[in-house]
């Protein structure tokens, strides 16, 4: 089973109430080969919600208590991101996920790039909170871009 970010399956769960539909991922959901999750919604955040970025590191640093997830207006939402990450981990275990495809750049789901924490649009190398937790627990986590490359090779 493949675990995928809900926004890639066409669900309107992104911070601004939009989605990032990927037809190939939506087809996997329809064929019952994939299950969709949104860690931020699982963590109790609403749709829409204020944009958030990791301040002081990446998702691994958040897991280690060295960084925080903060909204653009300065509200600390770290606990929501951690709650969602752990809920996603449980789902990944329950469905016996063999691959996890998460939305790149997200403070939850980014698997190789996230925003730099300055709300400037600048990206840095790093993982989101959920991606980091899943990787720590032995799951293969890739971005939708990597997934498209893998299936076209």
Automatic annotation (TrEMBL):
InterPro entries, alphabetized: 2-thiour_desulf
**PANTHER family membership:** HYPOTHETICAL CYTOSOLIC PROTEIN, INNER MEMBRANE PROTEIN
Q: Taxonomic lineage of this organism? A: Bacteria, Bacillati, Bacillota, Bacilli, Bacillales
**What is the protein name stated in its UniProt record?**
DUF523 domain-containing protein
Pfam family of the protein (one): 2-thiour_desulf
